[in-house]
């Protein structure tokens, strides 16, 4: 499951966008990371972003 959202709050501590993804297991995440469409979007984001943060966790 993937969710894309745009920030609605003005703050110096806020980010503009977020991607929330859920994967069945580590192998599914590994496949996602090299998927051509993900790589294309990732490369674009690298060109336009000022900073980035991420969180990985398992339930």
From TrEMBL:
PROSITE patterns named in the record: S_R_A_B_BARREL
Coiled coil: none
Domain of life according to the entry: Bacteria
Stretches assigned to the Stress-response A/B barrel domain: 1-57
Organism: Butyricimonas virosa
InterPro entries assigned to the protein according to its UniProt record, in alphabetical order: Dabb, Dimeric_a/b-barrel
Protein name: Dabb family protein
Annotated SUPFAM superfamilies: Dimeric alpha+beta barrel
């Amino acid at each position: 499951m993937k969710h894309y959202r745009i920030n609605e709050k003005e703050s110096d501590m806020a980010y503009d966008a977020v991607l929330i993804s859920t994967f069945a297991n580590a192998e599914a995440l590994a496949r996602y990371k090299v998927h051509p469409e993900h790589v294309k979007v990732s490369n674009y984001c690298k060109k336009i972003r000022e900073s980035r943060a991420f969180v990985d966790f398992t339930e």
